[in-house]
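INTERNAL AUDIT FORM
Audit reference: QA-55
Scope: verify that the stored structure record matches its stored sequence.
Auditor: D.O.
Record contents follow.
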Amino acid sequence: MSLSDDRTLVLDLREGSAYAFSKIYTLYHKRIYNFCLHLIQSSDEAKEIVQKVFIALWEQRLKVDENQSLASYLYSIARYMVYQEFRQQVFKKAACDYFLLGSNDLNESTNDNVLYNELLSFLESEIEVLPERQREIFKLNRFSGLTYRQIAAKLNITENTVDTQIRRALDFLRAKYKFHYH
């Protein structure tokens, strides 16, 4: 497809033309799919990213420069979406390993300080939303490393109460994490 054909399609797209969007999708979706599939090796994830790419194209249609290559623009969005997918996988692994499973061993892929600090900040803010007693119990276990028995003795409650409160806190955090990062 020539740059002038792309330019016409982009100008029509910017005007909100469903036909132009459909034509762009028909022309580029297979190439974008193959590009994503090559990078992430998962057909389902590649299909999902292609959908996100074209949703982003529609949402950002007023920002598309008609003088630039449409293919390059779409590949840039796809690269960004693939990066986001990798980043999300790192977050999932870090959250699962570090907070939800109680592991203090972060593997090399989760040792990226920027991602780790962002995840830590998110989880810390969500922990502060927990009911006061539940938050106290959770912090004593996860951050101070106290056992259920030690927490129960310190707070003069049963180990069963400690277990229940930690499970509720983890359920809450998992739900918030899923909502925020999926």
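Auditor finding: record pair retrieved intact. The chain has a mean pLDDT of 83.
Action required: none
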